[in-house]
């Protein structure tokens, strides 16, 4: 039996392949697939297939393809701005409106030193210098300040992705400014609850602090779509985001793990029953955020944003020793491959116990017998290592210095108790 030659087809012809280019990989929702080892978007190799009747002919054709590829002129007359525009237009069907808006913002404001340069003129050194200049860029407005390291990183992420497609031979590996995330001092849940109780933002605040929903998820909640038929569960099936001056509702959340279902606590269920509209929260996202900010200022608690309520929720789960698997599932945070594999295994006995633990904590803290303000804060600060972490000692001392302001948030009975304690302290320093 004759030996089959390498690349020989059943017809007897010979086929060989020549590498052509890389293509970025996206998942079913249009999101980039990230390699967990490198943190970069995965790519697939695309080849040109050559078929001829003999080995000599196919080798000759292969050599011609390689020569043509090597001699092919780079797009000398196309600028970085033009390739980004091309990238956006070719992907706008699979990208969310907010992502497209963000890309256009980058296109119009970022990396002005290279945006109109021809990509054939770009080099790694040019990119390094451009990153350095961009990191110094000031924002516009009444109080200009340098843009954040996160903003620079997001902007360059788009540029690198585009250049990896249209200029694959260019090394885009550039050191970016280190991120320094802002951490706000978090007030305990009972303080926040007393601050918003009875206000028009009580429901969205509890949905964020108790169930760890973001404002875009809260805006996308409707009785007809999000509440189970028995009224016991609430699901994130869509989100509502603001694009320009218009609110847009979309089915795809930021991450697939954000599509999740929670049991509705009895108190929140009562609040939902009082909502007359199908949409649970009709206030705009900015209106909810601004009202929350005004309450923070009114009651003089440490500065925090509406989004920080999700951090309060995460801190509570840490305090209660909720296993990471369930904490990540409830919060909808992105996890590794193992966690993704168990994502759909919701409402097992263990998950129900987790929900019971969290609901019991909030219900006892918010509606149980009041304790002294000191005791409440000491319980809250068990989350921290008070002996080893000087920052958290400062946090505790900061609270102790503002007890008089916190009294505004307490019931009359507890206020009298704390005032009595403070008077006693003055008499007996």
TL;DR of this structure?
With 429 residues, this protein is mainly α.
General description of the model:
Pfam families: Phage_integrase. Keywords: DNA recombination, DNA-binding. This is Tyrosine-type recombinase/integrase. GO terms for molecular function: DNA binding. With about 425 residues, the chain is mostly helical. It has 19 helices and six strands. Helix 2 (about 80-90) runs antiparallel to helix 3. The longest helix has 19 residues, at about 350-365. It is globular and about 85 Å long. Residues about 335-345, about 370-375, about 385-390, about 400-405 and about 410-420 have low confidence and may be disordered.
Note the topology.
Elements: E1 14-24, E2 43-52, H1 55-71, H2 80-91, H3 97-109, H4 124-134, H5 149-166, H6 189-196, H7 202-209, H8 215-219, H9 223-226, E3 233-235, E4 239-243, E5 246-250, E6 261-263, H10 266-273, H11 285-299, H12 308-319, H13 324-331, H14 337-341, H15 349-367, H16 373-380, H17 390-400, H18 403-406, H19 412-427
Helix pairs in contact: 2-3, 2-5
């Amino acid at each position: 039996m004759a030996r089959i030659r390498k690349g020989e087809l059943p017809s007897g012809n010979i086929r060989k392949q020549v590498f052509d280019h890389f293509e970025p990989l996206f998942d079913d929702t249009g999101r980039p697939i990230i390699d967990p080892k490198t943190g970069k978007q995965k790519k697939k190799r695309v080849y040109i297939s050559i078929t001829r009747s003999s080995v000599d002919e196919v080798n000759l054709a292969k050599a011609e393809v390689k020569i043509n590829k090597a001699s092919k002129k780079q797009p000398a007359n196309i600028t970085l701005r033009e390739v980004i525009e091309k990238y956006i237009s070719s992907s706008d069907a699979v990208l969310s409106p907010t992502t497209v808006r963000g890309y256009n913002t980058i296109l119009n404001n970022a990396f002005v030193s290279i945006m109109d340069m021809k990509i054939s003129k770009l080099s790694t050194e040019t990119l390094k210098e451009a990153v350095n200049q961009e990191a110094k860029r000031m924002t516009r407005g009444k109080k200009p300040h340098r843009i954040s390291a996160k903003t620079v990183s997001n902007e360059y992420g788009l540029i690198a992705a585009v250049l990896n497609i249209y200029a694959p031979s260019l090394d885009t590996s550039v050191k970016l400014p280190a991120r320094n995330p802002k951490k706000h001092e978090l007030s305990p849940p009972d303080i926040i609850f007393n601050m918003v109780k009875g206000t028009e933002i009580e429901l969205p605040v509890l949905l964020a602090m108790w169930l760890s929903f973001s404002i875009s998820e809260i805006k996308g909640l409707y009785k007809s779509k999000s509440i189970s038929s028995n009224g016991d569960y609430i699901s994130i099936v869509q989100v509502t985001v603001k694009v320009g001056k218009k609110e847009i509702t979309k089915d795809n959340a930021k991450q697939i793990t954000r599509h999740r279902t929670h049991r509705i606590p009895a108190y929140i269920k009562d609040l939902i029953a009082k909502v007359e509209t199908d949409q649970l929260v009709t206030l705009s996202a900015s209106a909810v955020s601004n009202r929350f900010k005004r309450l923070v200022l009114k009651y003089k608690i440490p500065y925090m944003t509406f989004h920080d309520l999700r951090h309060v929720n995460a801190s509570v789960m840490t305090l209660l020793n909720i296993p990471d698997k369930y904490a990540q599932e409830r919060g909808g945070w992105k996890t590794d491959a193992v966690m993704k594999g168990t994502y759909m295994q919701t409402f097992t006995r263990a998950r129900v116990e987790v929900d019971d633990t969290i609901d019991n904590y909030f219900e006892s803290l918010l509606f149980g017998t009041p304790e002294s303000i000191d005791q409440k804060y000491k319980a809250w600060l068990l989350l921290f290592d008070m002996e080893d972490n000087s920052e958290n000692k400062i946090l505790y001392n900061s609270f102790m210095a503002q007890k008089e302001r916190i009294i505004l948030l307490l019931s009359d009975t507890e206020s009298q108790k704390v005032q009595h304690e403070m008077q006693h302290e003055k008499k007996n320093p």
